[in-house]
């Protein structure tokens, strides 16, 4: 049981190392028309209402899927591998994330591109291992389940969770035409995601904003300068840790009491008992050279009537 309790706190944080070498976003340096359609906004604002949101979502999903289908069905080198008219993992969840829930972390470029690609690589790799068996057709459903499970874990550990990626992993094992493609399927997945992202950059940035970020919502410049450690948490969000800043903040939070002849300075959060207040008052009188050192003043911890208390900042 002790091992299980310790495991609850385990975290794999690849961003702790990656974010230190990734350069900050250069979008603010580009001409406004270009930076706008790459998702940059000088001043952030709320998304449009759901009426306009529904319109742009409809238009984006139609245009995105139409562009992918047109490219796939009219490119000879792609048609040589006999792909489906539309790969199923593009039909539903990806279109919704890229053109509807555009502020969701699950639909940002890092998650969409890397989540799909990683899942496709895992799906094809697992499927090839299962195809070494002569009875693959009978057990390919196991290959699909294993692929989806491993892809789900890999996306969480790498901070690239993208739900449609699970479908890509399953299709690599269960769809005969995709299974026959082998590693070529990974390239098709990447091409399809890129096409959908390009359409999203155009459609979503007319009145909305997409993406909200390309790699992380936190500042990469601070990550480089202050060694901020940024990584995925268990809920699909992000958490920020900075050991250096935490040490600095802990030092700054040390409570200080200043005693001089003119008064006693106490921190705002410090409450004193009557005995402690009396001791501080005696010390103040000694510093002031007061002849009434032996006199005792009963000072409540919440009152400043008997001594001067100036909150420290």
UniProtKB/TrEMBL annotation:
<feature type="transmembrane region" description="Helical">
    <location>
        <begin position="113"/>
        <end position="130"/>
    </location>
</feature>
<feature type="domain" description="HPP transmembrane region">
    <location>
        <begin position="50"/>
        <end position="211"/>
    </location>
</feature>
<keyword id="KW-0472">Membrane</keyword>
<feature type="region of interest" description="Disordered">
    <location>
        <begin position="229"/>
        <end position="249"/>
    </location>
</feature>
<keyword id="KW-1133">Transmembrane helix</keyword>
<dbReference type="InterPro" id="IPR058581">
    <property type="entry name" value="TM_HPP"/>
</dbReference>
<protein>
    <recommendedName>
        <fullName>HPP transmembrane region domain-containing protein</fullName>
    </recommendedName>
</protein>
<feature type="compositionally biased region" description="Basic and acidic residues">
    <location>
        <begin position="240"/>
        <end position="249"/>
    </location>
</feature>
<feature type="transmembrane region" description="Helical">
    <location>
        <begin position="51"/>
        <end position="72"/>
    </location>
</feature>
<feature type="transmembrane region" description="Helical">
    <location>
        <begin position="142"/>
        <end position="161"/>
    </location>
</feature>
<dbReference type="InterPro" id="IPR007065">
    <property type="entry name" value="HPP"/>
</dbReference>
<feature type="transmembrane region" description="Helical">
    <location>
        <begin position="181"/>
        <end position="203"/>
    </location>
</feature>
<dbReference type="Pfam" id="PF04982">
    <property type="entry name" value="TM_HPP"/>
</dbReference>
<keyword id="KW-0812">Transmembrane</keyword>
């Amino acid at each position: 049981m002790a091992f299980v309790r310790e495991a609850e706190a385990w975290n794999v944080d690849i961003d702790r190392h990656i974010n230190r070498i990734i350069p900050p976003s250069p979008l603010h340096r580009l001409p406004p028309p270009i930076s706008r359609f790459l998702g940059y906004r000088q001043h952030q604002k709320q998304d449009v209402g759901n009426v306009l949101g529904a319109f742009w979502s409809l238009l984006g999903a139609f245009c995105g899927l139409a562009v992918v289908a047109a490219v796939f069905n009219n490119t000879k080198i792609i048609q040589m591998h006999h792909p489906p008219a539309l790969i199923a993992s593009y039909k539903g969840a990806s279109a919704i994330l890229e053109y509807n829930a555009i502020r969701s972390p699950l639909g940002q470029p890092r998650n969409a591109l890397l989540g799909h690609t990683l899942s496709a690589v895992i799906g094809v790799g697992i499927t090839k291992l299962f195809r070494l068996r002569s009875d693959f057709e009978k057990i390919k459903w196991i290959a699909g389940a294993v692929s989806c499970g491993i892809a789900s874990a890999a996306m969480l550990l790498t901070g690239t969770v993208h739900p449609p990626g699970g479908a890509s992993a399953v299709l690599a094992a269960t769809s005969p035409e995709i299974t026959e493609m082998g590693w070529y399927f990974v390239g098709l997945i990447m091409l399809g995601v890129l096409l959908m992202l390009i359409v999203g950059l155009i459609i979503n940035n007319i009145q909305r904003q997409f993406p909200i970020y390309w790699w992380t919502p936190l500042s990469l410049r601070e990550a480089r300068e202050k060694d901020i450690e940024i990584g995925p948490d268990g809920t699909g969000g992000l958490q920020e840790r900075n050991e250096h800043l935490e040490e600095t903040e802990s030092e700054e939070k040390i409570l200080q009491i200043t005693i001089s002849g003119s008064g006693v300075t106490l921190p705002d959060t410090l409450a004193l008992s009557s005995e402690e207040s009396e001791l501080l008052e005696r010390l103040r009188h000694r510093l002031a050279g007061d002849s009434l050192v032996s006199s005792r003043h009963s000072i409540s911890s919440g009152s400043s009537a008997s001594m001067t208390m100036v909150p420290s900042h």
